[in-house]
Amino acid sequence: MERHxxxxxxxxxxxxxLKNHVNWIRQNIRKKExxxxxxxxxxxxxxxxxxxxxxxxDAVPTEDQSGGTWDPNTHVREVPTDAFGEINFGGLxxxxxxxxxxxxxxxxxxxxxxxxxxxxxPPPNLLISVTGGAKNFYLKTRLKNVFQRGLIKVAQTTGAxxxxxxxxxxxxxxxxxxxxxxxLSSSMQGQIVTIGLATWGVIHNKEVLVHSQGCFPxxxxxxxKGRLPCLDNNHTHFLLVDDGxxxxxxxxxxxxxxxxxxxxxxxxxxxxxxxxxxxVCVVLDGGAGTLNTIYTAxxxxxxxxxxxxxxxxxxxxxxxxxxxxxxVTIGLIHRLLKKFLSLEYDNFADLKIIEWTKKIQDIIRxxxxxxxFRGGGDSHGDVDVAILQALFKASRxxxxxxxxxxxxxxxxxxxxxxVDIAATEIFTDESQWKSSDLHWAMFSALASNKPRFVSLLLxxxxxxxxxLQSEDTLCELYKQLPNCFFLRKLAKRVHASCxxxxxxxxxxxxxxxxxxxGISLSHVSEEVRHLLGSFTRPIYPPPTTTYHFNxxxxxxxxxxxxxxxxxxxxxxxxAQRDPARDLFLWAVLQKNRELSEIAWxxxxxxxxxxxxxxxxxxxxxxxGSDADExxxxxxxxxxxxxxxxxxxxxxxxxxxERAKKLLVRVSxxxxxxxxxxxxxxxxxxxxVALSGVQGCVFQALLTEIWCGELSVDNAVxxxxxxxIFFPLIYTGxxxxxxxxLIQKQNEKxxxxxxVASVTGSVHRTKAKSHDLTTMKSLNCWSRLACLYSxxxxxxxxxxxxxxxxxxxxxxxxxxxxxxxxSHAEILLYVWLFSVVSEEVRQxxxxxxxxxxxxxxxxxxxxxxxxxxxxxxxxFIVGLVFRLTSKLFYAGKIVLCIDFVVFCxxxxxxxxxxxxxxxxxxIVRRMMMDMFFFMFLLSIWVVAYGVxxxxxxxxxxxxxxxxxxxxxxxxxxxxxxxVPTNVDYSEFDLNSCTMNGMDPxxxxxxxxxxxxxxxxxxxxxxxxxxxxxxxxNILLLNLLIAIFNFTxxxxxxNSDRIWKFQRYELIKEYHSRPAAPPPFIILxxxxxxxxxxxxxRPPFKSRKFRTELPHIEEEELLSWEALMKDRYLLSTQQQxxxxxxxxxxxxxxxxxxxxxxxxxxxxxxSAVLVKRLARLEEQVVQSAKGLQWIMETLKSTGLAGKxxxxxxxxxxxKDQPESSESANEADGFHVKARQFHxxxxxxxxxxxxxxxxxxxxxxxxxxxxxxxxxxIADGRSDSEVLDNYRNPGGRTGIRGQGSxxxxxxxLHVDLVITRxxxxxxxxxxxxxxxxxxxxxSVLPGGPxxxxxxxxxxxxxTLGRSLYEKLHEKMAExxxxxxxxxxxxxxxDNAWVETTVINLHLDSSxxxxxxxxxxxxxxxxxxxxxxSCKNGLCADQSDSLRRVAVLHNxx
Length: 1449
Description:
Structural class: alpha/beta
C-alpha cells in the first residue's frame, strides 16, 4: 500500500507540473493566423497561402464586407499557440523531442526562458549556428565525416547548443545524421542539444502537431509527399516560427538572428562572470541567402567558419578568401559563380552580382572573423579545432586590449575544457603571463575539476606558493568542494563548532558567532586530524582571534571541547604550510584521482603525502556508508600506496642510509609524524613488507633496530652463548655495529690511499683520516650494556623466562598444590605479578601520543594481548578460589584451564620466526573457518542426535544422559565411535537400565514382550548411514577444501602480513626493560620512581622517530624529490613501451597516414583540374593577343595601341586587371562604403573596390539621396551637390548625409603629450573617456577653422583648461591633415581631420595644465603611448605618428 501511495503522489506531482507547463505556454507563447480571407491565385486559397477552410469563421468576409488589399501587417493577428508539447517520431529509434509553434514577433528572452526553465535545457557554453544549403546537396564522404566528427566533438566538449533550420534536408540533415551517429555510438550520458528553427508554413504533416492543450506526445509521420520538407527526427528541440502565411521560406531568419544575439548576451554561468556566451556560424553550401546570413553575422562580430569543398556559395567565399581584396573583382565573382552555381548563374542579375561582390569584399576584409576550413590541407586539422580557433582569432582583434583578449580566450577554453586549444592558441610566445595573472584561471580549473588545465597552468608559470599564499583562497576551495563524504563531515563539524560557540558566548557575542559560521582552516585541520589519527599534530594553526569572556565561560568551553579526542597540542611555530601539500590534501579529501596525482607530483615530502593519503582514504572508506564511494576510496588509497612503494624503492636503490632516514624522520608538514607510523596506521602491508631485487627495505630497518648495537650478521647461536658467557664479547666473538662501520671505513681508507699513491693526490686521504678520528670504538661497559639492551637479547631472555614460568606453573599444579601455598607457589605469584606490571606498563606507554583511549583500543585489538588479559583474569579467579577452603578444588581447576591459555600464549613467541610466523597467521585464519564449519556441522549433529534419541529412548528425564545421547554420541560417531544400540545383533541389555534409575547407565530402549528392542532396525541403520555419509564424507571433505583454499589464499600474503605485524613485536621489545620476569619488577620500580615520584620526562628513543636539523631536512627532501622524478620518468617509459600503448600509437599513425593519402589524392585531382582550366584560359588570352597583333600590323597609327587588351596570365591566383588599380586600391575608403548608413534606414548602393575611383566607369551606379532631418536648412539642391565630389571616390549615397554641410567638414584632434620620469622616460598622452562608446578617445571635435579649438571640448575639459590649451595652439605641431575614412561620408560631403600635437614641457604653464587635468572629474586621464592605447584605428594611427615625432617607435 505504501508503495502504491508513493507512486500515486509522484503521478500527481507530474500532472501538476504538466498543467503548470501548459499554462505557461499559453500565457507566453503565441502564434499568428490570418484574420481576413482574400482570394489569391486560386479561388479557395487566400493571399496568405492557406485555404478558406483553414481560416477561422470571422476571417471569411461576407459580400457586404470589404477589408481592402490583403496586408500581412493588418490582416495577421497573434493568438495563443495551439501547437506545443512533444513529438514522437516513428521508425526504429522512436525518438521524442519537444516543440512549440511561436510567432515571429516572440521575444527572444521568452524563448530562452522556455528552453532553459520549461524544457530544462542546460544553458550553453557555446552557440553553434549551422547555415547553408536548404536543399539536399552532395558532400564528399571524407569531408562529411570530418564535418560531423568535428561538430559533435566541439559540441560535446564545450556543452554547446547547435541551431539549424530543423528540416530533414540540406545541411540540417547532415547535422541530424551527426547527432544520430553520436547518440548510437556514445556510451556517455547526456545528449547534444540540437535546436531546429523551422518555418511553420512550410512543414509537411504539421496538422498532427496541433492541439489546443498540447500534444504529449504527437505522433509525427516521416513520409514525404509533395515539395514540403519534414522535420528532422534527430533534433532535440524545435521552435516552429509562424508569420501567419503558408509556403513562404525564410520566415525564421529574423527571429533566429535575434535569438542568437540574445543568447550571445548571456553570461557563462557563475564561474565565468562577465564572459558572454560566444557564437560561431558554420557554413556549408548555400546560395544568396547564405551570403546575406554570413555578412549579417560578421557585422554583428560573429565569427564564421566556411567549409571549402561543400559547394556553391561556401566555395565561392573560400576561393575568394585567399586573395587580396583588390583582386576580388566583379569579373572574378562572375567566374566563381558560373563555376560553383552553374545551374542558377543565368538567373543572376548584374546588379545582384555587384552587390554580392561588395559583400564578399567586406567579408574578406574582416579576416579576423572569417576562417576557411580547407579539407585538403592541414591548417586546422579538424572542424572542432577550426571552430574554436575562429572564436579565439575573433577575440584578438582589439590590439588595444591584448591581455583582456587573452583572458577571455582562456576563460572560454577553461569552460570548454579544451586544453589542446589553450596550449596551441593561448600559451604562445606572443602572450606573456605572470603567475598572478593566472591565479583566477587556476582557481576556476580547480573548482570546475579540470585537471588537464591545472597541469597546463603549472607548466606555464603558475606558482602554487603565490596562489595559495592567502588562507582565504584555500578556504574558498574547500567551499567549492563537490558533494562528497568529507564535505558532509566538515559541514557537521562547522555546525557543531558554531553551536558550541553560541552556547558559550551566549547572546553577548551572537553577532560575532554568526559572522564566523563558515568553513575555516581550523575546521579542516580538526577533521583531517580525526582522519589521520590523534597522534598527529594539527596541520593548520588555530585561528588567532581572541575572545573576551570570563573564567566561567572559559571553563565551560574547555569542558565542551574535551573528551572527543586526545588533547590538542598546538605549537604555532611548528605548524608549517606547504602549498603543494594543501592542494594535494584538498584533492584527496574529495577523492579526485587526477587532481591529487598532479598535486602529489608537486609535493616536496611526497612519500609522507602518499602514505597520509592512504590513511585518510581508508579511514573515510571505513566510516562511509556508500559502498561504491568506499570502493573508490580504497582503490585510490591502493594507488598512492603503490606510489609510495615506487618512490621508496627508487630511494633505497640510490642510497640505503638516506632511505632509512626517510622512514623515521619527523615530517613537519603532516602533523609531526613519520612515514613509518603513517604506513602502519594506514595498514599499508605492501609498503611495510616491501621487497624486491634490493632486498626488504623496510624490514632491513626493523632488523637493524631488532639487533640494537649488535651487527645483523651475528648468528643466533653466537648471541645465545654470549648471553650466558658474556666475557666472550671482549674476545671479538660478537661483532658490534660501530666496529663494523670502523672496519668498512678503514677498508675504504686503504683503497683511497692506494689510489692516492698511484695518482699522487693526498686530499682524499686527509679527509678520510679526519673522519676516522671522530669515530670511536665501544668500551667494555658499553659492550656489555649494548648486549643486554638489544631487543634481540631481551626477547631470548623472555623466552627462557616464559618457559621457566610454565615449568614452575606445571610443577605447582601437578606436584606442589597444597592447602597452604608453598615457596614455589609464592614464587609463581610473584612471577605473575611482574608479568601483570609489564602489561600495565605497555598499556600506559605511549611514545607516539595516541592518547589513552586509542592506546587501549589498540591494546585490546591484538589477539595476544587478549590472551594475556584472559590468562591473568583466570589466574586471579583461580587464586581467589584456591584461597577459599570450599572452592579449593575449583580454584585448581581454573588454574589448570589457565595453564592451557598460558601455553597458547606461547605461540606469540614464535611469531618473530620467519618460518613459523606466517604459519601462525594461517592457523588463525583456519580457526575462523572452522568456527563457521562447526555451525554447519552442529545442524547435522543435533538433527541426527535428537531423532536417534527420540526413536530409541522413551521419556528420559536425565539431562546429562539426554545431552550424551543427542549431542555427544553423534559427535563421537564422526571420529569412528559407531554406536551399538542401533543394531539388534549388538544390543546388550546389561549395558543399560530399564527404568533409568542407575545414574551410571543409559536408559534402555523400548522393548517388546520377548525383551527385544522394539525400534525399527532398518530405520536406525539407514539414518546412521546417511549421517555418516554427510558428516564424515561431505562435511569433513568440505572442511579440508576450506582449509586448502585458506592455506593457498593466505600463503601468498602471509609473509607480507607477518612482516607487517613484526613491527609491533620489535617495538615492544625495543621499549621493554632489559631484565626478564620476575626480575623485571625492579625495572618497573625504577621507572615508577623516576617518572612519577621525581617527575622526570621519559626517555625518548630516536630509533623510530628522528627530528632532523633544518639543513639536513632540506637536503633529504631535495634528494627525495629527485628520486620521485626518476620514478615518474621510469613509470612513464614503462607505459610508453607497453604493448597496448604501442598498438594505440600504431593505429593512430596508420589512420593519420590514410587520411593524408586520401587528402593528397583529392588535392592532386583538384590541382590538375585547376591547371587545365588555367592552361585553357591562357590559350584563349594568347589567341586574343595574336589577333590584336595581326590587326595592329594591318592598321596604321596609335589607335590600335589605345585599344590594346591586356592579357591576363594567371599564376595560381587571379591578378588585378591593371597595376594602377592595384596601387589605388590601397587608399580606397572602406567605412564610407558600408551598406547601412548610420542612424538611418538608408542602404548605400553597392560599390565594389574596383569601382570606387571616379575615373572608372560605372554605368549602373544609381546611389540613393539622403540628408538627415536633424541638420539645419541649407542649400542642398543637385547643382550645389554637383560642385562637391568626394576625393576618396564613390560611397554609394548622395547628399550631405548627417554632416553639417556639403564638401569638406573640418575636424580637429589634439594629441596632448608629456614626459613622465618613473625610472625611465615615459611618453604619455591625454585621453578622454567616451561614456557612450565605452572607450578612450583623443580630445577633439568639429570646427569651422583649424585655428581654434572645437567648442564641444569646453564641456569636456572645462573652461579654464580649454582656455589654457587654446593659448598653446600656436605652439602645436601639425601631425596630419587630410581626408579621413568616416562612416558619415557621402559622395558630396566628407570629413577632413587635422591632428595637432601639444607637448607639455617642464614650464610653469605646462605644470599648471597638468594640475588642471589632475583636478578633473575623472573623464581625463594620462595613458602611456603604446600599441595598447584603446583608441580607434584612425586615432591610433595619429598617435603612432606622434610617437615617431618624439622618437618613441
